[in-house]
Amino acid sequence: MDLRADHAPLPKLAETVLPVEDYPVRLVTFLNRSLKDRGFIFGLRRVDEGRFSLTIYEAGPPAGRGDGEG
């Protein structure tokens, strides 16, 4: 079975390695720092012991885009 992709490589926006202990909080921080300028904000709240709820918000068009400027 051939498992190669038949498309151009995807551009990497950001990458990080996270320790398991504080994975959810550091992941959301990483996502916010990497994607906030593209109009996405990530929220995290604890649902119960060992479970978190991850929410993705659209903050509107990034500055200078979609509003006739830039």
What does this structure look like?
This protein is of the alpha+beta class and 70 residues long. The chain has a domain at 23-58. The chain has one helix and two strands; from the N terminus they run αββ. It has one helix at residues 23-35; strands at 40-48, 51-58. Strands 1-2 form a two-stranded antiparallel ribbon. Strand 1 (40-48) and strand 2 (51-58) form a beta hairpin. The longest helix is centred in the middle third of the chain and has 13 residues, at 23-35.
Q: What structural keywords apply?
A:
70 residues; alpha+beta; two-stranded antiparallel sheet; 2 strands; 24% strand
Secondary structure: number of strands:
2
Topology as a string of helices (H) and strands (E): HEE
Radius of gyration over all CA atoms, rounded: 17 Å
Sheet of most strands: 2 strands, antiparallel
Structural class: alpha+beta
Q: Any idea what the shape is?
A: extended
**Ends: how far apart?**
47 Å
Q: Strand order across the biggest sheet?
A: 1-2
Average residue-wise pLDDT: 76
pLDDT under 50 segments (min length 5)?
Answer: none
Please report which band the strand proportion falls in: under 5%, 5-15%, 15-25%, 25-35%, 35-45% or over 45%.
15-25%
Tally of alpha and pi helices = 1
Helix content: 10-25%
Summarize this, please?
By secondary structure, the chain is an alpha+beta fold. Helices cover 19% and strands 24% of the residues. The protein contains 1 helix and 2 strands, in the order αββ.
Describe the secondary structure blueprint for this structure:
Layout: H1 23-35, E1 40-48, E2 51-58
Antiparallel strand pairs: 1-2
